[in-house]
Design a protein that fits this description.
alpha+beta; Transcription Regulator spoIIAA; Jelly Rolls; 7-stranded antiparallel β-sheet; 4-stranded antiparallel β-sheet; 16% strand; extracellular matrix structural constituent; secreted
Length: 383
């Protein structure tokens, strides 16, 4: 017969069993970059490599800057005694000695002043005057008592003369103990002078620091207010001019530029040495006059090429000197270069009195055209 009509849909059947795994599909598209991960742990240190071969010797480097001046060393031990020197020349005549004790009474031949004056029997024996001026005696040498009619002084006048001489001896003795700063009685230093004579005023006095004969005494200016002993440079000032043309380098003024400027002072030799020994402090000012020449600091405040000062002890003092011994800059006008005349004032104050006075000055910034300078030395004052 004919095919029948489609029947109605039946109910869902039971779930079938899991099929076999299919094959690997094709690669998908690259995904976005993930976040940064945490740092991993350090790995183990590897073993050292082999020692490399020595490299070639390097070239010599440029010369380094000059080092700072070291501190003063410890005081050395006293050296062994030197050999006995040759006999020196005859010394100067010594100072007047102290008055001696009174002499013994005269012998029987002496005559009392009473008999000389035509007195009666004569009073007690008078004072033995020793050698008296000729006008005390008569002119007849054969007469033991002289010519009685020509005695020119009375007893009162003779006594007055004796007192005058005694007073003079007393004054000399007092001046010997406390010198007055005169040529005959020079003081040790101005400080000693004003301690002994506080009423004295400032001025020029005679001094004898080595305490020898007065023939080598020296003159110095004494400041009564501060009890300073001040000595002056013999040549105080130089010209302001162009002293040198060439490359910038250090030149010592006396040694390299002008040996006529001796840096000498009114007190020298052993008198200066003893003045240093008798003093606790010394000071001196130096003025550097300039036009377009740097003295201490340049326009950038650099002090590499500051001037150098040579002390009496042959040590150098400059901007790089340790602070304890470094000069003090009171004003530094030469830092400015503007075609104008200016000046830099430098002062050294020290308890090492052997450092002063200054004996030379080294300058640097002076070689170009228009760089002018001049020096001016101040007094050296000891106290």
């Amino acid at each position: 017969g004919r095919k029948g009509r489609r029947g109605v849909t039946g109910s869902y059947g039971y779930e079938g069993a899991k099929g076999a795994q299919g094959g690997i599909g094709p690669y998908g598209f690259e995904g976005p970059r993930g976040d940064t991960g945490y740092n991993g742990d350090f790995g183990k240190i590897g073993s050292a490599g082999e020692k490399g071969v020595m490299g070639y010797k390097g070239v010599i480097g440029p010369r380094g800057d000059e080092g700072k001046v070291g501190e003063d060393g410890l005081k050395g031990q006293i050296g062994t005694a030197g050999a006995i020197g040759d006999r020196g020349p005859k010394g100067y005549r010594g100072k007047m000695g102290l008055p001696g004790p009174p002499g013994r009474p005269g012998g029987p031949q002496q005559t009392s002043l009473g008999s000389v004056q035509n007195g009666g029997g004569g009073g007690a024996r008078g004072v033995d005057l020793g050698k008296t001026p000729d006008y005390y005696h008569g002119e007849d040498e054969d007469n033991e008592f002289g010519n009685e009619n020509k005695v020119s002084l009375s007893l009162e006048e003779l006594e007055a003369e004796l007192l005058t001489r005694l007073h003079r001896l007393y004054d000399d003795f007092a001046n010997f103990q406390k010198p007055t700063g005169s040529k005959q009685f020079p003081a040790l230093t101005c400080k000693n002078l004003f301690n002994d004579h506080p009423y004295l005023k400032s001025g020029t006095y005679w001094l004898d620091p080595n305490e020898g004969a007065t023939e080598d005494a020296v003159q110095a200016y004494c400041n009564s207010e501060k009890k300073l002993t001040c000595i002056s440079p013999i040549i105080k000032k130089t010209e302001l001019k162009q002293w040198y043309r060439g490359g910038d380098r250090y030149l010592w003024f006396k040694e390299d530029i002008d040996d006529n400027f001796k840096f000498r002072y009114t007190v020298e030799s052993n008198q200066l040495t003893f003045l240093q020994l008798h003093s606790d402090k010394a000071k001196q000012k130096i003025i550097y006059h300039c036009i377009n020449s740097t003295a201490w600091r340049d326009r950038t405040n650099d002090v590499t090429h500051s001037i150098k000062l040579l002390g009496d002890n042959e040590r150098e003092y400059k901007a790089s000197t340790p602070r304890k011994h470094r000069p003090t800059v009171l004003s530094d006008g030469c830092q400015v270069k503007d075609e104008e005349r200016r000046s830099t004032v430098i002062e050294i104050v020290t308890e090492k009195t052997s450092r002063l006075p200054m004996r030379d000055i080294a300058v640097y910034d002076i070689g170009d055209d228009g760089e002018l300078f001049g020096l001016e030395l101040g007094n050296v004052c000891f106290s």
